[in-house]
């Protein structure tokens, strides 16, 4: 059976539905800062066989009611699960990465050669995060300019959790 565009439009109107257009990808990472950027230790090897061996983190923004909030996620690469997250109205290190880090550490322990990978944003390169990673000898901080696969995995997991 073939339906006309106008008939589909009428059905959509009767059901009270409306289309949602995909927004243009917007970069929110501030890479122009004075903080130290670490090497990319992950080197695009986004797989892991051990829990607590490799984790990736990203910050994105989502609309909550009528306001924009920043969602920080930390994903374990062995099982591709979100193990730490934070939702906040500001992008400070304390309210984004640190809160997600604390939740992730409470959820799962880390291995002796643990890699924490992120973009080069100011939240990840801040003194708070680099001190945390340097203080614990088990942690190697890793950064890269842009890892689209991380964003895709995180967005897929969030949509899966919210919509299922």
Description:
- This protein is of the alpha/beta class.
- The chain has a domain at 54-163: Nucleotidyltransferase, domain 5, CATH 3.30.420.10.
- The protein is 33% helix and 24% strand.
- It is built from five helices and five strands.
- It has a five-stranded mixed β-sheet.
- Strand 2 and strand 3 (81-88) form a beta hairpin.
- The protein is elongated and about 65 Å long.
- The mean pLDDT is 80.
Query: What is the CATH C level class of the domain at 54-163, in words?
Result: Alpha Beta
User: What percent of the residues sit in helical stretches (DSSP H or I)?
Assistant: 25-40%
Distance between the termini: 30 Å
Order of helices and strands: HEEEHEHHEH
Integer-rounded radius of gyration? 19 Å
> Which descriptor suits the 3D outline?
elongated
CATH topology of the domain at 54-163: Nucleotidyltransferase, domain 5
Quick overview of this protein structure:
With 164 residues, the chain is an alpha/beta fold.
Features:
164 residues; alpha/beta; Nucleotidyltransferase, domain 5; five-stranded mixed beta sheet; elongated
List the helices and strands and how they pair.
Layout: H1 5-15, E1 54-64, E2 67-76, E3 81-88, H2 94-107, E4 114-118, H3 122-125, H4 127-135, E5 139-143, H5 148-163
Parallel strand pairs: 1-4, 4-5
Antiparallel strand pairs: 1-2, 2-3
């Amino acid at each position: 059976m073939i339906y006309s565009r106008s008939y589909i439009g009428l059905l959509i109107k009767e059901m009270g539905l409306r289309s949602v257009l995909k927004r243009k990808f917007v970069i929110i990472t501030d890479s122009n800062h004075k903080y130290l950027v670490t090497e990319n230790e992950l080197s695009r090897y986004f797989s892991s066989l051990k829990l607590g061996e490799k984790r990736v983190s990203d910050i994105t923004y989502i609309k909550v009611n009528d306001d924009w909030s920043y969602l920080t996620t930390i994903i374990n690469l062995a099982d591709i699960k979100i193990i730490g997250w934070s939702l906040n109205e500001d992008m400070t290190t304390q309210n984004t990465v640190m809160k997600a880090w604390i939740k992730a550490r409470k959820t799962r322990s880390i291995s002796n050669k643990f890699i924490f990978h992120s973009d080069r944003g100011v939240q990840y390169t801040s003194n708070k995060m680099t001190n945390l990673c340097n203080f614990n000898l088990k942690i190697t901080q890793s950064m890269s300019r842009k890892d689209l696969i991380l964003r895709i995995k995180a967005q897929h997991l969030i949509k899966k959790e919210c919509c299922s």
